[in-house]
Amino acid sequence: MANPTEQEYTVIGVWVNDTPVSVGVVAGTHQVDGGNDLDDIDGSQGPWALTVTAADPFTAEDIAIVAMAEDIED
């Protein structure tokens, strides 16, 4: 069970050279659509978004980046 001081954050990012890069963090759970034009940027491999539970947006960003990086390794 989550710590009562933690909340959900949606971390939005883009893949660049097989590396997840965060571009923003929004408090709460959100559906994220679009961003497919990012494929036209050099090195970009498309958008990603992940909702995580964390104490603050900075920790949420760290958790999401690690989770996305581990996902590509699988």
Query: How many distinct folded domains?
Result: 1
Q: How does the major sheet shape up? A: 3 strands, antiparallel
Stretches where pLDDT is under 50 for at least 5 consecutive residues are none
Which percent bin holds the helix content? 10-25%
SSE string, helices as H and strands as E = EEEH
Radius of gyration over C-alpha positions, nearest whole angstrom: 13 Å
What is the rounded distance between the termini? 26 Å
Strand content: 35-45%
How does this structure look, described?
The protein has 74 residues and is of the alpha+beta class. The protein has one domain. It is 23% helix and 41% strand. The protein contains one helix and three strands; from the N terminus they run E-E-E-H. The chain has one helix spanning 57-73; strands at 7-16, 19-27, 44-54. The protein has a three-stranded antiparallel sheet with strand order 2-1-3, with helices on one face. A hairpin with a 2-residue loop joins strand 1 and strand 2 (19-27). The longest helix has 17 residues, at 57-73. It starts with 6 loop residues before the first strand and ends with a helix. 14% of the residues are buried.
Mind sketching the topology for me?
Elements: E1 7-16, E2 19-27, E3 44-54, H1 57-73
Compose a concise summary of this entry:
This protein is an alpha+beta fold.
What are the key terms here?
23% helix, 3 strands, 74 residues, alpha+beta
